[in-house]
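Lab notebook page, bench 4
Experiment: in silico fold of construct C2
Operator: M.H.
Input chain length: 155 residues
Purpose: comparison with the prior construct
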Amino acid sequence: MRRSAGRAGSVAAPPAPEVTMTAPPQQEAPREVLRTEFPFQLPRGYVDEQGTVHRDGVMRLSTARDELIPLRDIRVQENPAFLSVVLLGRVITRLGTLPLMHDGIVENMFASDLAFLQDFYRQINAEGHTRAAVNCPHCSEPFEVELGGSRLGES
């Protein structure tokens, strides 16, 4: 019989259980996803040369470049009201089944659809930046007020 390297006559202790130390799982901060494209549906719709009506589309968020480049366009320089047409032609990425979107299409839309797109542009590009939360001075009820510009491309 072999004795352990301990004292004579002592009983060997059972082996210690193996303990593995692990750090608690780290909670990853939820990643904020920036939505950059927004679907829309025109009130009337763009009618192409074949008579097809295109109503469903997608508009992307505008960049500073999108707002600056149209200012070099001769049509905008001659008539500032043309700015919204050129700008919308840049940020609308899809309209119905049209293979290509450009300012010429926007130029030939019904006035009600153009007004809708101008408002939609303001909504998606100014979200969270042109509204302020305030309280009524009389009843203390909270509400929001619009602080942004009134023309497309203004902030």
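Observations: Residues 147-155 have pLDDT under 50 and may be disordered. Strands lie at 37-47, 53-60, 92-95, 131-135, 142-146.
Next step: discuss at group meeting.
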